[in-house]
Amino acid sequence: MNEAVEGQEEDLRNRLNAMETKLKRMRDQRNNFTENARRAADSRNSMQDQGKEIRTKIKEYLDQQKEIRNRAKEHQLKRDALQNQIRELISQKRGKKESSKGNKSAIVELSETVAEIERIERQLMTDGTISLKKENSLLKFLKKLIVKRDELTPLASELNLLNIDLGDMEGSIQLLKAEADAEHKIMLDFHSQADEIWNSIKPMFEERDFLQAEGDRLHAAYLEGRKNADEVHSSIVEMMKEVNEIRDKMKAEIEEGKLVIENHNRLVRESLTTPDKDENLANSLSEKLIEQGSLTFGGTLSGDFSVAEKKPKAKKHSRKLRTTRGRKR
């Protein structure tokens, strides 16, 4: 039976050693996966930081380009307004009338209004034949023209338009053309600056896209490493449960073996103990002696307590043992 127990213990011990060896390999594998995931995460973070920097630069350049494009747009609007005035003056010069009053530009309306105001004022100052009723009508109309002039003046000033002379159509047209060409050139210069900025931005877009792709790849590697590490860790947890069960079983068998050995040793000691060395017997006799005051040993023969006589005539009789409490003085 002891050999069977020892064989079972040896089998459990071998299984435990094999499992502990496998656990060590699995822990090393898990740590490798974790380390690979950590390195991938560090590289990913570095790529993301670089991508953030490049995106910040791109935004700065784009904002700068947008501002330049807006300034080009302002000069484009001024050029378009001047070109509209040129077309209107050319149409007036050729005797064509506008289909509607709303199609006239602010500078043309302002010039016509100013010219009409000057004509009425000159008429009121020089024409002595005007009746009172006519004069009041002209004054009323003059007030409306002045109001209109005051409304058009800020608009023309905001657009930086020229106050043309309707009396010199050709000169006004040439002047407006020069201004339109100047505004067009300024617009082209701004667009050229914006194009240069765009040429500087394009390589940044390529670098940004590369960093984004590389960051995504490293993030996927990080997730894969974490997944593999988690799977190995789950296997380790399951195996640790089995290892602990084997250890508990071995511990129980060891404790059981110790108990068997202790019981065996106790039985051996008891079988080898004589009555005079039996502590339990001695204690029992002592208690009986204290209670009764005397002891009688049963199962003894008279010859058991006799001794050899030195003299033939002297006989020694056996006697009962009596005990006394204390020593007589």
3D architecture notes:
It is a single chain. With 329 residues, the chain is mainly alpha-helical. It has one domain (2-238). It has 5 helices and no strands. The protein is rod-shaped and about 175 Å long. The protein has helices at residues 2-93, 106-126, 132-158, 169-272, 279-292.
Q: How many structural domains are formed by the residues?
A: 1
Largest sheet: none
User: Structural class, from secondary structure content?
Assistant: mainly alpha
Number of extended strands: 0
Written as H for each helix and E for each strand, in order along the chain, the element string is HHHHH
Number of helices: 5
**Helix fraction bin:** over 70%
Query: Uncertain runs with pLDDT below 50, 5 residues or more?
Result: 97-101, 299-329
Give the terminus-to-terminus CA distance.
Answer: 64 Å
Strand content: under 5%
Estimated radius of gyration: 62 Å
Question: What sort of overall outline do the alpha carbons produce when their principal axes are compared?
Answer: rod-shaped
Mean pLDDT, all residues: 76
